[in-house]
Amino acid sequence: MARDYYEVLGVSRDAGETEIKKAFRRLARELHPDVNQEPDAEDRFKEAAEAYEVLSDAERRRTYDAYGHEGLRSGGFDPGAGFGSIDDIFQAFFGGGGGFGFGGGRRAAAGGDVGIEVEVDLAEVATGARREVTYDVVAPCEHCHGNGAEPGTPITTCERCGGSGELRAVTRTPFGQMVRSAPCDVCGGAGKVPETPCEVCGGGGRTRQSRTSAIEVPAGIEEGQRLRIAGAGHAGEPGAPAGDLYVEVRVAEDERFERDGTDLISTVSIPATEAMLGTTVMVPTLEGEEEIEVVPGTQPGHQYVLKGIGLPRLSGRRRGNQRVILEVVVPANLSEEQRELVERLDETLEDGNLSPRHDGGLFGRVRRAFG
């Protein structure tokens, strides 16, 4: 539902023409994309322009005051129908590009961004890594140094646009006459034309090149996070900045570990007999193997914590832990002799041998498995 036009401009219903104009100029200053980066700024600007379009016209204002938005539509008026871009509205209302100090004429286009991927393993996530990456990029021509002219030959002012770099056309809009501009089709917006175009880039001043850069991947990086290297993307037009390089990081899977934030989770399997009698096992870590002592009677799912050998937080120094979960393997396919030994053991078990925390413990589950 459309908002009340007086509310949009922040003026009273008896506001005069001068007050309405000042209110719109104030909103235009606040909502212009050069100073307001909020995602809804353009929609709010067009809403304010629509409100001004109605309230600055005496006849439309009387219709709106009497019948509201529906009255305007039933009378054949379609608010905002002739709107173009914000720059078009600024030119129509304020003329050129001046008035607000946002500059006039065509702006040189900034260079585009480049995206690539690099892969690191978990050990490099723990310590950080350095990668040499090669990618294609549009860069200033090395032969003409980006000016588009064959070295030693002159560059002249474009005759078609007179050096302005743009061509203008006048059209009518709800605001009145609107001046639209487009890049000059001869000089491409540069305002200058080389008499002898560069034989390497054809006068464009830029060529596609292969570039190699060193990328520092910080410790603690997460899968899918991106690194931004400012100015390492495609070159912009003369006077405009280059784009950026975005590096998406992939972390290679390691079948030994599962990542849980800064912690690593791994498992170690031992036979049920070793869990009963106790043993020592070697556990893989990012820094080699570490010995763990399994005390007699350790239950399945028991967790050991190896402190400080997990992963760090991004841009942090302190590392998480490695959690080792014990898997107890119950013997299967027993021979008759083995079965007899287990049955003899089972007959000697007492309540004190069983752990109630594990629903009868390992021996209770073995006994049920054997029927």
Please give a quick description of this structure.
It is built from nine helices and 15 strands.
Task: Describe the overall structure.
- The structure is a single chain.
- The protein is of the alpha+beta class and 371 residues long.
- It has four domains: 5-94, DnaJ domain (Helix Hairpins, Orthogonal Bundle), CATH 1.10.287; 105-146 and 203-253, HSP40/DNAj peptide-binding domain; 155-194, no CATH class; 270-369, Urease metallochaperone UreE, N-terminal domain (HSP40/DNAj peptide-binding domain).
- The chain is 26% helix and 27% strand.
- The protein contains nine helices and 15 strands.
- The chain has helices at 5-9, 17-31, 41-55, 58-74, 86-94, 122-127, 272-277, 336-348, 361-369; strands at residues 114-120, 129-140, 155-157, 166-173, 176-183, 192-194, 206-217, 226-229, 245-251, 258-260, 263-271, 279-285, 288-294, 303-306, 322-329.
- It has a four-stranded mixed β-sheet with strand order 10-11-15-14.
- The longest helix is centred in the N-terminal third of the chain and has 17 residues, at 58-74.
- The radius of gyration is 37 Å and the shape is elongated.
- The two termini are 73 Å apart.
- The relative contact order is 0.10.
Number of domains: 4
Beta content: 25-35%
Secondary structure tally: strands: 15
Output the strand order for the largest sheet.
10-11-15-14
CATH homologous superfamily designation of the largest domain: Urease metallochaperone UreE, N-terminal domain
CATH fold descriptor of the largest domain: HSP40/DNAj peptide-binding domain
The CATH class name of the largest domain reads Mainly Beta
Mean pLDDT: 82
Please give the radius of gyration in angstroms: 37 Å
Order of helices and strands: HHHHHEHEEEEEEEEEEHEEEEHH
How many helices? The count is 9
Largest sheet: 4 strands, mixed
Structural class: alpha+beta
